[in-house]
């Protein structure tokens, strides 16, 4: 009876709508484009692991067992997951041998399990540790908004660290807890003959900060807008470096992303792109491609808004390029809207003086 329930594939959308979502949504999956970029200079080292239909079903079943609080006992599923685990371990070993030893991030070729991290027990532990560091210590501020922003930024950064895994068991455990992963598997398995999802294993970027990720909106092959990625955190250094960030992201897009995709994926003209930008001790900037996301209203656009900005900015051929960052903390303002914040995080912030 349990297995029958685990195999039920149901969507609110019609079959035609679900297929259209699948085609658009998975059209920019990482395995479709990432190998076209140089993993040393243009993107992060990326290894993809194809999943069979049976492995996809086993992972979906594991997600549903987690949700129900039941234990997986089906021998076929356990065997399939053992093979997936072995494949992940093999990739991790290879990357370790190439001196990538800071852990890994493991996700579907579509997206990561980041929805589980805000309330994960590891997040709270890491958050408390971060408050003792110079970067996030709130005691360096007297202004209440800056204090709150320090706490909020520490919570964000702590939640990111929860995606860092060191072995296949940790990776599969994270995947199984994610509603995002469950949805994507369900969507792809609805059209079993076209099942295409796989796994991505990347070395963990130990130099990643809240200040290093940016989201761009591309329409008709042109970078129209750029935004800081973590939209609820005021990041002071971005104000100082704004012109340089814009310059380097635009240059990287025009010299690398655009020509590579024109050659290898000419049909891909509208998409949301994530940049990783770092600055070394000599104040030299380096930009890399993190990932490409579908041009859909379900994809976040940073500090922009699909409803307000699509016509005047994103899809207007005459619009000027725009780069948005926060110029002051907004956490106190967000506290006024109970639906804009993770409840457990909101409770922490409201208790601050």
Automatic annotation (TrEMBL):
UniProt GO cellular component terms: cytoplasm
Entries under Pfam families matching the protein: D123
Taxonomic superkingdom: Eukaryota
InterPro entries: CDC123 (IPR009772)
Similarity annotation: Belongs to the CDC123 family.
Protein name, per record: Predicted protein
Lineage start: Eukaryota, Discoba, Heterolobosea, Tetramitia, Eutetramitia
């Amino acid at each position: 009876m349990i297995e029958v329930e685990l195999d039920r594939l149901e969507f609110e959308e019609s079959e035609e709508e679900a297929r259209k979502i699948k085609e658009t949504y998975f059209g920019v999956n990482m395995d479709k484009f990432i190998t076209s970029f140089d993993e040393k200079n243009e993107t992060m080292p990326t290894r993809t692991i194809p999943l069979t239909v049976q492995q996809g079903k086993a992972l979906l079943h594991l997600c549903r067992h987690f949700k129900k609080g039941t234990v997986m006992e089906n021998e076929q599923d356990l065997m399939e997951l053992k093979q997936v685990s072995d494949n992940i371990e093999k990739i991790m070993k290879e990357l370790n041998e190439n001196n990538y030893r800071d852990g890994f991030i493991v996700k579907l070729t579509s997206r990561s399990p980041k929805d589980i991290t805000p309330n994960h027990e590891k997040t709270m532990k890491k958050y408390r540790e971060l408050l003792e560091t110079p970067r996030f210590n709130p005691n360096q501020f007297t202004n209440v908004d800056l204090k709150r922003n320090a706490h909020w930024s520490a919570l964000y950064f702590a939640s990111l660290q929860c995606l860092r895994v060191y072995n296949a068991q940790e990776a599969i455990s994270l995947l199984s807890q994610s509603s995002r992963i469950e949805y994507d598997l369900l969507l792809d398995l609805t059209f079993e003959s076209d099942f295409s999802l796989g796994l991505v294993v990347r070395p963990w970027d130990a130099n990643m900060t809240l200040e290093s990720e940016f989201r761009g909106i591309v329409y008709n092959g042109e970078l129209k807008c750029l935004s800081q990625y973590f939209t609820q955190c005021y990041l002071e250094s971005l104000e100082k470096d704004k012109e340089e960030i814009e310059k380097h992201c635009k240059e990287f897009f025009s010299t690398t992303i655009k020509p590579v995709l024109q050659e290898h994926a000419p049909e891909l003209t509208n998409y949301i792109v994530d940049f990783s930008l770092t600055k070394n001790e000599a104040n030299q900037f380096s930009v890399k491609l993190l990932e490409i996301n579908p041009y859909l209203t379900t994809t976040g656009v940073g500090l922009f808004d699909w409803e307000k900005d699509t016509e005047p900015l994103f899809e207007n051929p005459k619009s000027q390029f725009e780069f948005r960052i926060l110029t002051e903390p907004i956490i106190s303002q967000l506290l006024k809207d109970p639906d804009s914040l993770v409840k457990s995080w909101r409770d922490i912030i409201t208790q601050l003086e």
